[in-house]
Amino acid sequence: MLTMENVIREGHPTLRKVAEEVTFPLDEKEIELAEEMLQFLKNSQDPEIAEKYELRAGVGIAAPQVNVSKRIIAVHIPSSDPEEKPESDFSEILYNPKIVSHSVQQTCLADGEGCLSVDREVPGYVPRHKRITVEYFDKDGKKQKKRLREFPAIVTQHEIDHLNGVMFYDRIDKDNPLALPDGIEVLGGSEEE
Ligand code: SB7
Ligand code: NI
């Protein structure tokens, strides 16, 4: 079982590497790792399991975060939140994910982003594409294509960034972390619009 002890933290060189594509058929270790990554996310969102194993809640994780420099990500955004629209549900393992198109419209989370590999709060808006089309392979090597918007799109972009050695704070405006690019839509948070 994966725990926070398996998660490498900023400063570790693997987080700054461009991860390698996987090749098909996958080997058993790659399949197992991805399943463990998805299970970690589920565990981290279960209050009892999370407390017992001291897991920080996560909605996504990328293989480089567990020190495996391969293009594998897992995303787990469950439906239980009544405020989320049903089409926002997304629970998936993505091999070699690639954004093949995206909206011009940008979005960002009102409360910024965090990262399992970053043990500090980094305030600031992280501009993301509001909608993306992502192509990826499933564990059987079958090509898949999904359109994602808003929160699932943001999380998927955060994870794909990890595959390219990019951290969320690289995208925050250094001079003015709370500067909003023209026309960007701010998502969620407690602030009224
Ligand atoms: C907020 C949180 C995440 C993505 C986008 C916005 C995921 C945090 C967990 N991770 O560090 C995954 O890489
Ligand atoms: Ni992260």
Automatic annotation (TrEMBL):
Top-level taxon of the source organism: Bacteria
SUPFAM superfamilies referenced in this protein's UniProt entry, alphabetically: Peptide deformylase
Reaction catalysis annotation: N-terminal N-formyl-L-methionyl-[peptide] + H2O = N-terminal L-methionyl-[peptide] + formate
Tagged with keyword Lyase: no
Cofactor note text: Binds 1 Fe(2+) ion.
Positions of Fe cation binding: C115, H158, H162
The protein's required cofactors: Fe(2+)
Catalytic activity, EC: 3.5.1.88
Statement: the UniProt record of this protein carries the keyword Endoplasmic reticulum: no
Pfam family, one: Pep_deformylase
Bilayer-spanning residue ranges: none
Active-site residues per Swiss-Prot or TrEMBL entry: E159
Enzyme class: hydrolase
UniProt keyword annotations, A-Z: Hydrolase, Iron, Metal-binding, Protein biosynthesis
PANTHER family attached to this UniProt entry: PEPTIDE DEFORMYLASE, PEPTIDE DEFORMYLASE 2
Function (record text): Removes the formyl group from the N-terminal Met of newly synthesized proteins. Requires at least a dipeptide for an efficient rate of reaction. N-terminal L-methionine is a prerequisite for activity but the enzyme has broad specificity at other positions.
Family indicated by similarity: Belongs to the polypeptide deformylase family.
Name of the protein: Peptide deformylase
Organism, as annotated: Alkalibacterium iburiense
Lineage of the species this protein comes from: Bacteria, Bacillati, Bacillota, Bacilli, Lactobacillales
Gene: def
